[in-house]
Structure formats: C-alpha cells, structure tokens
Protein: TauD/TfdA-like domain-containing protein
Amino acid sequence: MAEAAAPLKATRQGSVEPFTLVEGPEAWYAKDYRGRSDWVTVLSPTHIAELDAAVQGILRSGIDLRSQLHKVTREQFPLPTLGPVLDGVREEVRAGRGFALIRNFPVERYTRAEAIVGYWGLGLYWGKAVSNNKAGHMIGHIKDIGHDPNNPLTRLYATNAAQPYHNDSADIVSLLCLKAARSGGLSSFASSITVHNEILKRRPDLARVFAGDWYFDRKGEVPPGKKPFFAIPVFNYHEGYLSVNYSDNYYLLSQRHAEVPRLTKAHYEAMELFNQLARSDELRQDHMLQPGEIELLSNHTQLHTRAAFEDYDDVDQRRHLLRLWLAPAVDRPLPESYKEIYGGSVEVGNRGGIHVEGTEEHISLEAE
Ligand SMILES: [Fe+2]
Structure:
C-alpha cells in the first residue's frame, strides 16, 4: 500500500482536502475531555426564571399545542440572558467540538405540557426543527412503546434495544431526558472525524471505500416518487468540509432489496473497523443521561449510540427522552447526495428530517 507510506497532510474544516487528516476541535479523543466539564452548561436560577416566564407566556396565549406550538417563533419565546448562552452552545456544537450538555432543565417541577413548550422554546435558539419520522413528529419521543426491534421497519428509538453507532438525519440532534431507565441505557458518543482520521492512518484503502456510495434503507419511510433505498457516501468531502454520515444497520438492511448492489468484503471490513474505532476507549465518551439533562450533537462530526435498557413496570416511570432535529440558520454546505436523507433539500437552515406523502407536522405530548 504505497499510500500508507506517504506522510499524511492535515487540513481544517472549511479547507479540507479529500483524504487528509482533519484537524480541529471536532476531531477529539476521549483523553482530551477526561476531568473536564467545560462542555457542560448548568442553567442558573436566572436562566430558569426566564424559561418559566416564556413557557407561561405561551401557555397563557391558549394555543393548541398539538397543531400550533411548532409555529411559535424565537421572538415569541424571549430569553434575555439565557438566549445568548444557547446561541453559544449551538455554535460550539455546529462549528466547534460538536457536542454539549445542558443541566438543570426543571423536568421534575414541570408538567408534560410545560416541558414540551420549554424544550421547543430552547430549540428555537438552535435552528429550525424538522420532522422526526413519517408521522410528522416535530418533537420525537424516545421511549419503548413495544415495537419489535427485529422488524426491519422498526425505528429503534421506539424499543429498548441497543443502537449501534450512527448519526441522525439532520444537522443537529438534541435529546432532553425526562426519565431514566431502571437500569441500562448508557449513552456514548465519539467523533466521526477522528474515526475518519484513524481509518486514513490505518487503512487508506478503506477510506476510499467510505468515500464511495453506500446504500441506505428507508425503513419504509419513502418520500413520494422515491425508491425504498438510496445511495450516499460515508465520507463526504464537499467545498472544504468533511461531513460523515454513517448507520451500518441501514446499510445491512438495504440488502433486502434485490436492486441494491451487494455489500462486498471491503464494505464489511470497513464497517468493522469503523465500529471498532467508534466504541474504543480511546475515542468514546460515555454519559448516563439524567432527568433534566439535554445533550446536543452535530450529526456531521459526531456519532452516538445507546445501550439496551430495562424499564420500570409503571408505564409513567419508564425511560423517556424528547428529541429535536434542528437545522441552524448558518451551517456548512452539504453535497446534493444529502437531499435523499435530508427531506429533499440541502439548503442551509431548511434541511433534514423525514417527509413522506401525508406527513402532517405536529407536536404530540405523548409517545405514540
Ligand atoms: Fe440517533
């Protein structure tokens, strides 16, 4: 392998050249954050008072939360001192290290309606929210509602099964923990940019495989006129940016369609190396989400996973997270191939999410 012997060049997001090591805060290792808490923002009493006032303002207006909350704008949800903090968190996630945690969202004191309104309001400072599924849920409910994880059409967030390392279908994903599981459910995340760099160092031949087409199964969430699968590279070098898009269970599932080219030995080897790197002690950070914590991740530079869990018998005590998929108003350019997975658009500020025939955008207070 002549390529492996040549010294690898390093470039930064904004000026990334294909098949070079990407340098920057998003290309982190676990050791970089050991003992550090600068990625955690703790809401102060002043922040929470502002949040309370904005939530009550929306509730007093009497709007129907199911059909109208997702039309509320940032101007209708004023957060005088918290707002700039939320803007800073978004920038760190979008263009910095790629991950952040917020603590102290008052889930214990809030009713479900207050929690939903409050979380929607925070999201207004991070970007335009997009639909989480074919039902048009603008806030996703991550809860085991008894779906069979072995059914190919099941989205794993509606089960208690482990999820492999992947990223979601929007620029930013955020999760708010309402309830933790009785046991299990550990969240972990890793930098997909570091995974890219390590693959380049170890197996430059496989980096080329990742830059080729990978077939992705839509799990039955098929937009009008589209096939039930599409192709998108894992390593996307575009206008000076490296964006990584990876979900191995969707690649494996695509093999159920006769029209999809068969995965080769190189593809399987590539996935094995990718997963081994993502879950390694050197790359991975673990975090058990606690009620009131909000996690934010860039889907272009970070991967996430969660372990299987066991719930309490009482339905109301079961693990329950809320999810936002967000498109910030300012963000990196993405190649046309992302249109397939980004709701038909790669326009900055207006991309991502799942849109199929008859999708009606709404917000549900319960997992359904
Ligand atoms: Fe996910």
Notes: The pocket of fe (ii) ion is lined by residues 166, 168, 304 (CB under 6 Å). The chain has a mean pLDDT of 95. DSSP finds ten helices and 19 strands in the chain.
